[in-house]
Amino acid sequence: MELVLTVLRPLLAARPEPVLKGLKIGTETGHGREGGPPSLPWLRLTEESHTWRWPAVQRVVLRLTCWHRTDHDAKAAVGLALAVLCSLRGVRGVLDVEPIVGPIAAPDPHTRKPLATATAAVRIRTPARP
Known about the structure:
Largest sheet: 5 strands, mixed
Distance between the termini: 15 Å
Structural class: alpha+beta
Number of helices: 2
Shape: globular
Radius of gyration: 15 Å
Order of helices and strands: HEEEHEE
């Protein structure tokens, strides 16, 4: 997951789309009672599953969840993040990325803030050396 975050952050920051302006990307949300995002817009990456095949190929299913100011902006931002993620083939050991579901918009059931979610399978060749 750290590899994806490291690559995705600067690529999304360089995009010109207004819905990505000020987007923060992390692996957690707030720690308050409702657990909402620390700020808006916020993109959270979480690992849904992880498998390992010999010799060193990992398959990670990532969920992208974006909280934003409107449903439309949340869905557009997570869709753009998914598109950028899917374009990473060959970058730093990424073998391929395949979208699975989404983007789907719905209000956050805890905070009622607009959010959208998508999932993708990322196959990565683990490097022999750091």
